Amino acid sequence: MGQNLFIQNALSPPILFFFLGAIAYALKSDFEIPAPLPKLFSLYLLLAIGFKGGIELQKSGFTYPVLPTVVAAILMSLLIPLICFVILRLKFDVFNAAAISAAYGSISAVTFITAESFLESQNIPFDGFMVAALALMESPAIIIGLLLVKFGATKNRPIKRKMKWGSILHESMLNGSVYLLLGSLLIGFLTSAVDPTDIKKMEPFTGELFYGAECFFLLDMGIVAAQRLARLNKTGAFLIMFSILMPIINAVLGSVVAKFLNLDSGNALLFVVLCASASYLAVPTAMRMTVPEARPSYYISTTLGLTFPFNIIFGIPVYMSLVNTMIPQI
Amino acid sequence: MGQNLFIQNALSPPILFFFLGAIAYALKSDFEIPAPLPKLFSLYLLLAIGFKGGIELQKSGFTYPVLPTVVAAILMSLLIPLICFVILRLKFDVFNAAAISAAYGSISAVTFITAESFLESQNIPFDGFMVAALALMESPAIIIGLLLVKFGATKNRPIKRKMKWGSILHESMLNGSVYLLLGSLLIGFLTSAVDPTDIKKMEPFTGELFYGAECFFLLDMGIVAAQRLARLNKTGAFLIMFSILMPIINAVLGSVVAKFLNLDSGNALLFVVLCASASYLAVPTAMRMTVPEARPSYYISTTLGLTFPFNIIFGIPVYMSLVNTMIPQI
Amino acid sequence: MGQNLFIQNALSPPILFFFLGAIAYALKSDFEIPAPLPKLFSLYLLLAIGFKGGIELQKSGFTYPVLPTVVAAILMSLLIPLICFVILRLKFDVFNAAAISAAYGSISAVTFITAESFLESQNIPFDGFMVAALALMESPAIIIGLLLVKFGATKNRPIKRKMKWGSILHESMLNGSVYLLLGSLLIGFLTSAVDPTDIKKMEPFTGELFYGAECFFLLDMGIVAAQRLARLNKTGAFLIMFSILMPIINAVLGSVVAKFLNLDSGNALLFVVLCASASYLAVPTAMRMTVPEARPSYYISTTLGLTFPFNIIFGIPVYMSLVNTMIPQI
Amino acid sequence: MKRLDLIFSERELDDVLSALEKAEVPGYTVMKHATGRGPERIVTEDMEFTGFGSNAHVIIFCEQEVIDKIRENIKSVLSYYGGVAYVSEATPL
Amino acid sequence: MKRLDLIFSERELDDVLSALEKAEVPGYTVMKHATGRGPERIVTEDMEFTGFGSNAHVIIFCEQEVIDKIRENIKSVLSYYGGVAYVSEATPL
Amino acid sequence: MKRLDLIFSERELDDVLSALEKAEVPGYTVMKHATGRGPERIVTEDMEFTGFGSNAHVIIFCEQEVIDKIRENIKSVLSYYGGVAYVSEATPL
Ligand SMILES: Nc1ncnc2c1ncn2[C@@H]1O[C@H](COP(=O)(O)O)[C@@H](O)[C@H]1O
Ligand SMILES: Nc1ncnc2c1ncn2[C@@H]1O[C@H](COP(=O)(O)O)[C@@H](O)[C@H]1O
Ligand SMILES: Nc1ncnc2c1ncn2[C@@H]1O[C@H](COP(=O)(O)O)[C@@H](O)[C@H]1O
Ligand code: NA
Ligand code: NA
Ligand code: NA
Q1: Tell me, what CATH number does A317's domain have?
Q2: Number of domains in chain C
Q3: Of the candidates C35, C231, C285, which has its C-beta nearest F51's C-beta?
Q4: Residue A278: nearest ligand to its CA?
Q5: For F31, phi and psi rounded to 5 degrees?
Q6: Cβ pairs bridging A and B (under 8 Å)
Q7: How many helices and strands in chain A, by DSSP H and E?
Q8: Reported pTM
Q9: Could you confirm whether domain F1-51+61-87 is CATH 3.30.70.120?
Q10: Range name among A246-250, B147-151, C236-240 with the lowest pLDDT average
Q11: C36 cis-preceded (ω within 30 degrees of 0)
Q12: Which end of chain C is less congested by CB atoms within 10 angstroms, N or C?
């Protein structure tokens, strides 16, 4: 069955468009999507998933299992960076280890979306409130990353790089993509409480268009991931191993927690995917600002060039099998 | 009831996204929508409202109250600048006074759209032909502004800045946004006469997507308005007062005319909003070209930084109450 | 009836928006659609027609008349450049003649789309597999153009410009727009075999939005075509004649082949339009890279400034009449 | 050879380019979407969507004579709407 | 007159501009969306959509004194995050 | 130090950049989306969506030796497809 899932995932439009982009780079086609068009799609996707998540959260309210799941997600985004940090310190200095750890504690919204699409075509139900978990896993991971630097490297840093609590919170909460996601979530939540007709009027934009826009964006992500992958040789074997094995470890951890939370298989997959995925939007941006000592190529190239494609191509079906094994469906 | 309207308006997605943008700026988030993406949305909105307006105009034909309303709108766009000019001359030279006056005589398409969305969620009907009024209020306001300069400042200007009728008409009729709006109106009008199936095929683009695109655009307008507001301190108290009070005065004028025209409350609100709103697209562009002596910050910062947010946040519900008082609903 | 068709075509939204753009340029309006927004629409249109074509191809399979039609289309894209080359050599050197010939052998996707919209509003059915013909006519035309240079000008070229088979194939198959079109076709073909629900989820993006996006793109094409037309005076009367007469000759050829293939009138029109239209995307790009001796203004200005507008305004209704005469409808 | 840098509102681009063509420059390069601040005005990115226009940066490599021919026309455009023009030395590679 | 060229990550743009304002530059021009490579890092176009930011190229025409006033502040920003700053001669047209 | 300005079609960007890397430049900056006119051709904005490509403007700050190393390779690319290359003086801030 696992192999079946793999093929079904690989032949879905989002993944095929991702391949189309990656192959364009590999074959040296001059196909490209010029800046800032990819930004349009990334803004759109964040706005749309936030907004829809807010609506669903309003519907479900904070009943079981919403609150425990969200809390567990936040805890995972604090715990995972610590595990990563311990592993990464074997090879990297505090700055690099902390920055990479933060990325893996955080999430990739596009991986999440792809997992949702996968569940939809498998006809497995899942709940909209999982987006709240997604939205709330970015900031804690950033904070823990910055704290690791603050306390791990306090002696080595020149005075002007001493981190202040203000800027840690600013970077973690007000980063453009975190802000848009959380803001749209709140707007969806508020609006659907007040006026359901407004929600309906948004539906063609945030709902119907979503799948196509996702495919278009993945086309670009294919090019970008292939470019990053091509440059990965400089990062060394340790990091390459890390960026494949760590998601799997995190997925296993996540599936245990999901079982413990008693989630249905759909929500469980999403939870696992949140744990397994790594951030290439909010976290790298925050790290670049606050930990300039860390090499961006370490935390961007691995997350974008390896972890992201691994997760959407192999990870999702594998994690689905894992979830199916651990959480027997009725 | 007025307070109720205010809250309902403030909690609608367009206004909430506007706030989201404004707060991003206020909190120094790095959230931004890079150029030329906002242009995409402004072009889209102009095309879509023009096109839909043309269809509605075709439907209604030039029966009562279409023609008198449109004529009254044009007259208002000539009259309002004259009133503004008299007031502004107390503090400003001819050039600045004329440029600001023209902006207030003209209209803000986004304010109009927001008012339409407001009416829709209040379930108050309104007519599509009001878009024709909107489209026809830009050029006269520009012309009157330029005439005020031509005759008010004829002696002080160097020869090469003498205004010619040709360039006055060119600036007022062929300005990019006026041109797109009028052109799309005409296309909608023509097409719906010939082939209704073509109209239906446009509907997903110009119709269904509209509300979401409006929200996305208002998100950017929130950032821009907040930036402008932050720079307003240099323009002085007089202009700040003007940019709040003048819309109210114009709204009262507008509501009297609307009552006189016997408009229903929906159309009356739109008419009032047209009078109260000020232009930040066509008029500033035209003024920049023809009246370089005027300071752009005066006529852009006030319209974008104060009048626009005031109108969409407070103005629309206040004007609705005004209209409800003056035009008793059956 | 021919005149009737002409008016119906001229009053359809795509053509009217094209005029709106062209007139903006002619009247020196400052209306413009800044880069890279037109690229967004051209990428979107290629992706959408490819994807939908793939679905249709999956539906129809390779039954009659799919295969013969596609083969005939490929043959036409090899034959037409040869005819063009003979004619053009009367006035131009090998490089320019070959480059222009390749452009006319290839196709214009936007002309094809406009023809489809025309058929839809005429309620004339046509088949989706024609997109496969479209997608497969670009590369052969490029190859034949490069072969004409390779063998026609082999002695005059410096060594470093000697063409290699590898780069000929690379340019013809991996050009950005060819790649996106073929790739999307394949994705549509594969996906619809596996999972029809995924196809449905793409529909709002690739299907419903299409007509509006087409209109928006034609608005920009109007500006671009008018700019090119304005610069055509330098290319000389021969080329101007060529770019109007050659499409007609190719259309006649195409209609004979279409009759021979026994196509219905809808598919026949599309076949004729493919023959008559000339490329301004893939071919010019490929020629620029491999035949830098040819003047781009020759092959871009004529295809964009004359052949393209001629085809969408006059060509489509004329070719329809031609098809109606040759292929009597039941 | 000289290098001339012109920075001004993109709305004057057509005027400036035709002034350059009149002076028979051998070529020029245009970069749009520049923002900035001058002695009086501040030009921000949002001016692009309002139609107000951001700045254009034009670079011309040419001989001193061409610079002399350009001067009058360019200065009259720039004095009207604002903008800057600076000349520096440049040698072909 | 001098011409100062600054190239650095657009995320430091606000810091750099306020350093320029403090030195009372007569004006400046900003061009965003530049990519490039420095001694350590490579900046590519995809950094724009990840929020990481591409480079900004800032040009300032000013007197030598202003350059001297600018130096300290700019250098401290550029030494922190990387970027280059070069001065050359320029004459008003 | 020297400043090298290269302006050419963005389709040759990869070739030019690898020529620069071969000459071991300390860094470079690329600005795309430039339009312009040269002795033969005019490059307009619409070339971006047709895939034909607009121009790229590349700036390199480096020592004279690097310029000398660059020269041959760059010239062969530019002579094939067109484009300009100029050197001027620059001093680090
Ligand atoms: N000293 C300067 N250095 C660099 N750019 C300048 C300078 N002064 C003005 N500019 C540019 O020229 C544009 C127009 O200037 P202005 O003369 O204020 O209209 C500004 O927006 C800046 O982009
Ligand atoms: N030698 C150079 N010439 C031109 N641009 C440079 C040079 N060195 C660095 N840059 C630019 O400055 C940016 C930041 O450099 P870095 O110091 O590596 O962070 C790079 O991305 C380049 O765009
Ligand atoms: N004299 C010049 N000054 C500035 N830019 C130039 C000049 N000549 C050519 N260019 C630029 O170089 C590009 C390629 O030139 P060409 O050699 O005509 O292919 C042109 O499109 C311009 O952007
Ligand atoms: Na994670
Ligand atoms: Na008004
Ligand atoms: Na053809």
Answers
A1: 1.20.1530.20
A2: 1
A3: C285
A4: 4
A5: -120, 120
A6: 88
A7: 19, 0
A8: 0.96
A9: yes
A10: B147-151
A11: yes
A12: C
